[in-house]
Amino acid sequence: MALMTGEQYIESIKKMKMQIYMFGEKVESAVENPILRPSLNSVKATYDLAQMPEYEDLMTTKSSITGEKINRFCHIHQSTDDLIKKVKMQRLLGQKTASCFQRCVGMDGFNATFSTTYEVDKAHGTKYHENFVNFMKYVQENDLTVDGAMTDPKGDRALSPSKQADPDLYLHVVERREDGIVVRGAKAHQTGICNSHEVLVMPTIAMGPEDKDYAVAFSVPVDAEGIFMIIGRQSCDTRKLEGSSIDVGNSQFGGVEALTVFDNVFVPNDRIFLNGETEFAGMLVERFAGYHRQSYGGCKVGVGDVLIGATALAAEYNGAQKASHVKDKLIEMTHLNETLYCCGIACSSQGSRTESGNYIIDLLLANVCKQNITRFPYEIARLAEDIAGGLMVTAPSEKDLRDPKIGPVIEKYFKGVSEVSTENRLKILRLVENLTLGTAAVGYRTESMHGAGSPQAQRIMIARQGNVDGKKKLAKAIAKID
Q1: Which residue among the candidates 204, 292, 374, 444 is catalytic per the annotation?
Q2: 447 annotated active-site
Q3: CA 10 – CA 460 distance, rounded (Å)
Q4: pLDDT, tens digit, for every residue of 334-391?
Q5: φ and ψ at 372, to 5 degrees?
Q6: What residues pair up with 62 in beta bridges, in sequence order?
Q7: Cα separation of 214 and 153, whole Å?
Q8: What's residue 297's pLDDT?
Q9: Out of 60, 113, 116, 191, which one is annotated catalytic?
Q10: Annotated catalytic, 292?
Q11: Residues near 181 by Cβ (< 8 Å), separated by ≥ 6?
């Protein structure tokens, strides 16, 4: 089964025995939980679209491992065309869900781990690459969703992993056995892990020899013994419990994050991809970060498309669409959004082949892409709020709108242009609220800032990759300086 349908995916998640906690209670069914279900629907969309002929070229490809047709989210990039199609696919899914669809981190982790394990084996004579290729074959043949887990809680940022007062603040090996290893620690901010079949764990920073036990990469099923998740809060999240589709803003799709705890989890030898080779931890982090910074030039742009559309509709429903300043602000939103897309396409088109055979993006341009992502969505959101108006955050609830007594009052006083119903006006305003301030703002705003590394991480990489010395030589040559 190389391609699952969306319904088959839902059924596969139902069968898993995940340990999930939220609001102080254990979640009995993540599939049926009203807060978690929209995030599951977003992942389901990655399976649904892969079944549609009109999206086949973007959503599916031929496996370099099995030769079979697979979902692109399970693919090891074989060309710059693959890298470009990845960004186009992510924009499409952002447009279809207006949320995080959660498979990008795993895909980016695949490609970083594929090339890094090849080079570790070359240096140390290990068999990590063979392990990883076998794991990828399993993922592709079963069309699995894999969570990529990199971010540790980190504790005191001034101290290295091995110097922390609590050794568990970075995930680490606590026991090495003949048949595998035992690990303990946690991974924070894990978007969509409760909708995943497997978790691919990677180190979070470059490490020295003293951090040997922390330089570990592996994969295990998300419901492996010793793994449990604590779901994070989101702005306006409990609106999903009220039975209102209008107040939620986006009732069908969403995202969700969790602290994922590894409490003495056993990892068999054939699932280990790094185990103490500290000099390669930084390489794995850098390559993953590059791929994931590229991803933001697709997914955030797709969500931005929806926000621009919702804002344009809000202007129309307010009767303000012909105002010159509104037109100019919509142009600026589009300019910023398309600039982000340009960066995603540029770093993809300038990609290159690694020693292992897969393709990696241009790291400088990927970091420029993500640096812009830390800024432009905030300005797009600001302009959206400017155009939408204050009613976006002061409108009464859907329950009030449906009330026999006060509903007609709301209909009367919150009417915009005569040909658009008050209900539709409120729906579009709530969608803008969802994307800029509500549950979707987790992915569109704050994740744009901190996901795949905070702004300073990109600036460090831009300084490293920017080749200022080479540019000095160019200037000297033009100025005829010896």
Answers
A1: 292
A2: yes
A3: 41
A4: 999 999 999 999 999 999 999 999 999 999 999 999 999 999 999 999 999 999 999 9
A5: -70, -35
A6: 69
A7: 13
A8: 98
A9: 191
A10: yes
A11: 173, 175, 216, 218, 266, 267, 272, 275
CB 198 within 8 A of CB 221: yes
**Cα 473 to Cα 199, 365, 482, distances in angstroms:** 46, 21, 10
**Residue of 119, 316, 433, 447 marked active site:** 447
* Burial of 294 per CB tally in 10 Å (0-12, 13-18, 19+): buried
Kindly name the residue from 9, 61, 74, 100 that is annotated as catalytic.
Answer: 100
Catalytic position from the list 299, 343, 347, 369: 299
Residue 325 known to be catalytic:
no
Q: Is the pLDDT of residue 139 over 80?
A: yes
**pTM of the predicted structure, to 2 decimals:** 0.97
User: d(Cα 444, Cα 437) in Å, to the nearest integer?
Assistant: 9
Write the burial class of residue 69 (CB in 10 Å: 0-12 exposed, 13-18 middle, 19+ buried): middle
Check residue 2 and give its pLDDT: 79
Residue pair 140/2 in contact (Cβ under 8 Å)? The answer is yes
Which of 47, 118, 214, 296 is labelled catalytic?
Answer: 296
Amino acid at 51: Q
Tell me the C-alpha distance between 4 and 50, whole Å: 9
Judge whether residue 1 has pLDDT over 70. Answer: no
User: How many other CB atoms sit within 10 Å of the CB of residue 386?
Assistant: 12
Q: Are 287 and 81 in contact (CB under 8 A)?
A: no
198, 257, 277, 433: the active-site residue: 257
Tell me the pLDDT of the chain averaged across its residues. Answer: 97
Q: Are 183 and 171 in contact (CB under 8 A)?
A: yes
Note if 299 is an active site residue.
Answer: yes
Q: Are strands 198-201 and 146-149 parallel, antiparallel or unpaired?
A: parallel
Active-site position among 74, 104, 343, 347: 104
Q: Is 296 a catalytic residue?
A: yes
- Evaluated on CA atoms 412, 414, 415, 421, the torsion sign reads negative
Report d(CA 262, CA 226) in Å as an integer.
6
Residue 40, classified by CB atoms within 10 Å of its CB into exposed (0-12), middle (13-18) or buried (19+), is: buried
Q: What is the mean pLDDT of residues 255-281?
A: 98
